[in-house]
Task: structure prediction
Amino acid sequence: MIGSKGERLLEARALGLWYRGEEGRGRRVFQGIDLDIERGEFVAVLGPSGCGKTSLLKTLGGFISPSTGRVLFQGRRLNGPCPEAVMVFQEFDQLFPWKRVWSNVVFPIKVGGDVHRREAMEGRAENILAELGLTDYLRYFPHQLSGGMKQRAALARALVSGASLLLMDEPFGSLDAQRREEMQRLLLRMWEEHGFSAIFVTHDIGEAISLADRILVMVPDGEEWGGGYRLHELPVKLSRPRSSVDAGFLELYQEIYSYLSTASPESGRTR
Result:
């Protein structure tokens, strides 16, 4: 079982997913995954393109039903999307284009709850928007924002909703290097201040090491490439803030790179 010994927020047991194609032929995506996510923990997921990282993320959030196994959130089995688990995507168009920044961010608290709770949550929204540097952009429409600003607004909406788990699917993948580093630092600051858990999918080894407490590498399960994937856990035993020129950072980077290389379909073998 992959996970640590703190307070469990999410549990996956014997989790498997496969898709049935033409003539009854199926493709196994992943199988036999046992995973615990602690409250307040930051976990990164790495793997080759097409290995099912996004499918795993959506399954853990209840957006896709697993073919086998189960997902528990705070001890309750998920049979659909969990309101306390919010997706943040790579695409810049995840905001409602016809709504201004303020309306986008407070949308989750407008669709439910009593008036007094909504008023309190709007105060929370104002504080979060200020922390993210969006106070001067509240009346902007999404098309008037840069990519980085759009991602800040998407992050603000997730935090305002009161989510205890952020499911982040390469959220900074479309940003240039400088903006990506800025968003990484900002995300870590918000994580430390608000105490949410995060599962962060990325292709960037350095990004995973910079952000995460643990890194989960998706590797083929068995010798046949079509046999699905499993998770291999690598703890990140580096204090924050982390520097990409530190010896420990470079050592872990090489270990992960080596693991991904020997687990790729081109290598003809798994590790």
In short: Residues 95-161 form one domain. The helical segments are 53-60, 101-110, 115-131, 147-160, 177-194, 205-211, 247-262. Residues 265-271 have pLDDT under 50 and may be disordered. The chain has two domains: 8-84+164-267, 95-161.
